[in-house]
Amino acid sequence: MSDIAQAAALKKTGTFFGEPKALAYLAFTEAWERFSYYGMTALLVLYMTEALFLPGHVEHIAGFAAFRAGIESIFGPMSPVALASQIYGLYTGFVYFTPVFGGWIADRWMGRRNAVVAGAILMSGGHIAMAFDQSFLLALVLLITGCGLLKGNISTQVGQLYAEDDAAGRTRGYSIFSMGINVGATVGPLACGLLAQIYGWHAGFGLAGILMLIGLATYLAGYRTLTEETPAANRTSDAPLKLGAKEWRVIAALVVAMALTVPQSVAYYQNSSIGLVWINAHVNLDVFGFRIPTPWFNSIDPFISIVFVPVLIALWGWQDRHGGEPDEVMKIAQGAFMAAVANFLLVIGSWLFHPVPAIFPILYDVLLGIAFLYYWPPLLALVSRAAPTGLKATLLGAAFLALFVGNIIVGWVGTFYERMTPANFWALEGGIAVAGGVVAFVLARPLMRVLAVPAKVSGAG
């Protein structure tokens, strides 16, 4: 089915705020999925360090002795905190790695709708398995595999709701879809964190499992509103691409731009790993007799990513009208410097206060939320604009590999936490972000000379 015919067919099923009705099912499915994912992630490192890896629990994890031996054969002996950081990095890293294969499986074998359903089922099972000590490793495998099938494919389905030439409609659709992501990411840590504090860790993980099941039910309710080409058609429709020297220069420049985001990812995603461990141990969480659940801090940066979008759009528009809007690579550099400032705030807090007032990690997460808007959306926009026409989807998928690399490094850097003072650790994180910002600043002009004009590639035949 052509994009135009598919979009026309979807329009007949009704509308959602003027958009295809199917968008409602996709947006709400993603909201529930992100609700469960971020709710679970906000608990993960704290659960490992404060309960699961302690005597009386760690012995019950099926296959854990062999798994730990394998990890330590690569990275060396690790304390519970270091091991938790490494596992967190591996888990979140592979969450961004497997969608590359999930998209290929959907395109070539099972179709996107069935892939999303299978992914949601696997993720539901993973969240439920997380509610038991014995099935911890199984839970991580199910979550990683399920996210690989669901994440990229449901995002692709949003674009399929619109004709190829309907750029404005596609932008509106992805904006609504992104709102679902950020709302889920904001509310998930609040709900799961509070439940875990009142009723225990497994109650928080259990809620994440229930929410994922609601997401599955939502998607199934809208299953018939979605159409797609058959995998067999995809396997026979490929045409070889003609790449010249100009296109290869553009591809190389985009790969470098992707690599430039890795240092900021290291500085950013530590807020969900060692950041929570540090807050739990060194921050005064008691406010008027109420103890702030530590996972709540993970709701701040996605909330900021919602409310600051119109602010930054207005700022960049003003800069554009006055000839001073930074290009995409320069925005990446500016985002890295903001992430550095966020981490240096924790250095100052660690130096001056014992315990540290809660305002320091709050400001830290606020700045990280703004910094995220300066580096990740501009990167996706850059790839979408400048990539050769026949390789846009492939290179957009490759951009997520930068998050894979960044999160793997997050886990490794976190293993140094116990060997340093908190101030020195956050200075290290800030220094990584500064280094990334400096390199991006230096390379901005030569990269943008290559990426200024989109390259086009035509199919052969």
Task: Describe the fold and architecture.
The longest helix has 33 residues, at 167-199. Helix 6 (112-129) runs antiparallel to helix 9. A hairpin with a 2-residue loop joins strand 1 (15-16) and strand 2. The model is unreliable at 7-13 and 454-461 (pLDDT under 50). This protein has helices spanning 3-11, 22-52, 64-75, 80-97, 99-110, 112-129, 136-160, 167-199, 201-221, 231-236, 245-260, 262-269, 274-282, 300-307, 309-321, 328-352, 359-386, 392-414, 422-451, and strands spanning 15-16, 19-20, 286-287, 290-291. The chain contains 19 helices and 4 strands. The strands form 2 sheets. Strands 1-2 form a two-stranded antiparallel sheet. Strands 3-4 form a two-stranded antiparallel sheet. It has 2 domains: 18-227, Growth Hormone, Chain: A; 243-287 and 295-451, Growth Hormone, Chain: A. It is mainly alpha-helical.
Summed up:
The protein has about 450 residues and is mostly helical. The chain has helices at about 5-10, 20-50, 65-75, 80-95, 100-110, 110-130, 135-160, 165-200, 200-220, 230-235, 245-260, 260-270, 275-280, 300-305, 310-320, 330-350, 360-385, 390-415, 420-450; strands at about 15, 20, 285, 290. It contains 19 helices and four strands.
